[in-house]
Amino acid sequence: MNRIRTFYELYRIRVICGVAIVVIIVSIAVVLRQPIATPRQVQTIAPPVVEHTTDTPALPTHVFVDIKGAVKEPNVYEMATDARVKDVIQRAGGLLPEADETQINLAQKVTDQMVIYVAVDGEQTTAIAGNAANDSPTKVNLNEAELEQLLTVPGIGPAKAAVILAYREENGLFSRIEDLLAVSGIGEKTLERLSDYLEV
């Protein structure tokens, strides 16, 4: 009987130890299978770089030039800022045969609102090119002007002034500027050039 009890005690101890060992092994296996936590990386976001630019106003690339006088097509033309007087004359169709080229500076650079006046041969004028920002020219009254006053009008020389005075003396006062078309030597283009300087 004592032998049986002793055997039972030894067997129970072995069973308990075996179970304990199995539990320990399983616990270790479970622990080893769990992933090792790694420290979380913190991403640093740099602030956006703001580029400071200075807006430079764009320079004008074109100017407007008014050409009058003895050219084929007097008008206001849009020209490049580096254009010269000769370029404007070419845009206006070129000079008329009676144009006095000696009074023009063909190499002069144009400016915005510039006025170019091309005189005819024998015309007394000093205003060849100027700026339209100046005051408008004083108009000469066709019905009151004498020879000296008519000669101040760009485009009217001594011969043309004498013809105008003779026509007025013979036919009476002008009722409108367009009556000049009846004067010998004055056509529509000439009238267009003179209309800025004459009145009735």
Considering the chains and any ligands shown, give keywords for the structure.
single chain; 200 residues; alpha/beta; Ubiquitin-like (UB roll); DNA polymerase, domain 1; four-stranded mixed beta sheet; two-stranded parallel sheet; rod-shaped; DNA-binding protein, ComEA family; Soluble_ligand-bd; DNA binding
Number of strands: 6
Shape: rod-shaped
Order of helices and strands: HEEHEEEHHHE
Number of helices: 5
Q: How much strand?
A: 5-15%
Distance between the termini: 160 Å
Oligomer: single chain
The CATH class assignment of one domain is Alpha Beta
CATH topology of one domain: Ubiquitin-like (UB roll)
Unreliable spans: 126-135
CATH architectural group of one domain = Roll
Order of adjacent strands in the largest pleated sheet: 2-1-3-4
| Helical fraction | 25-40%
Radius of gyration: 52 Å
Main beta sheet strand tally, sense and closure: 4 strands, mixed
Instruction: Please identify the structural class as seen in this structure.
Output: alpha/beta
| Average predicted confidence as pLDDT | 78
Organism: Brochothrix campestris FSL F6-1037
Protein name: DNA-binding protein, ComEA family
GO molecular function, one term: DNA binding
Keywords: DNA-binding, Membrane, Transmembrane, Transmembrane helix
